[in-house]
Write a structure and sequence with these properties.
Elements (H helix, E strand, L loop, with lengths): L1 H38 L3 E3 L7 H12 L1 H6 L1 E10 L4 E4 L20 E8 L2 E8 L3 E11 L2 E10 L2
Parallel strand pairs: 2-7
Antiparallel strand pairs: 1-4, 2-3, 4-5, 5-6, 6-7
């Protein structure tokens, strides 16, 4: 009987592993699609002074107030951290707090930044010249409140 239970457990683990693998592969496509939606038809900025002051105030509170941040993680957020050998998919239930301010590396010549924003959306893509895209973050104004809907970090 123990052998049967062991075989059933192994089959269940294989099914879970396959499901997670499919989710990990699919998350990158979903992130690309959400990023395209956030960029579509919106104005591109190259200077920090052009960012909506309302969003800047929101973001400062978002990265410094953990309770506020968790309240503003959209239920449908697409979020992943790409590690060298795996992908960590984030949800509102396992959210890792963001404390990084996009202004920190803005003047660093190794980085290129793409900012696209209007009164209802904010998208930032950061690239390292020698690597490519290393992060994407997107917010949308939903029912009058800014919420994070996209977060991607390439940590490898």
């Amino acid at each position: 009987m123990n052998i049967v239970l062991t075989i059933v457990a192994l089959i269940q683990l294989q099914l879970i592993g396959t499901s997670e693998l499919g989710t990990q592969q699919n998350i990158w496509e979903q992130i690309d699609q959400r990023a395209a939606e956030l960029r579509n038809g919106r104005t591109e900025f190259s200077q920090l002074k052009d960012i909506n002051p309302n969003f800047s105030e929101f973001y400062q509170r978002f990265i410094t107030d953990s309770t506020f941040q968790l309240e503003r993680v959209n239920d449908d957020v697409l979020a992943a951290i790409g590690l060298c050998e795996s992908t960590k998919i984030l949800t509102p239930q396992n959210w890792e707090l963001i404390t990084y301010h996009y202004k920190e590396d803005f003047d660093n010549p190794r980085y290129e930044h793409l900012i696209i924003s209007d009164e209802n959306a904010f998208y930032l893509q950061s690239m390292l010249t020698e690597i490519g895209v290393i992060s994407q973050i997107g917010f949308e104004r939903i029912e009058g409140e800014w919420q994070i809907t996209l977060y991607m970090v390439n940590a490898c």
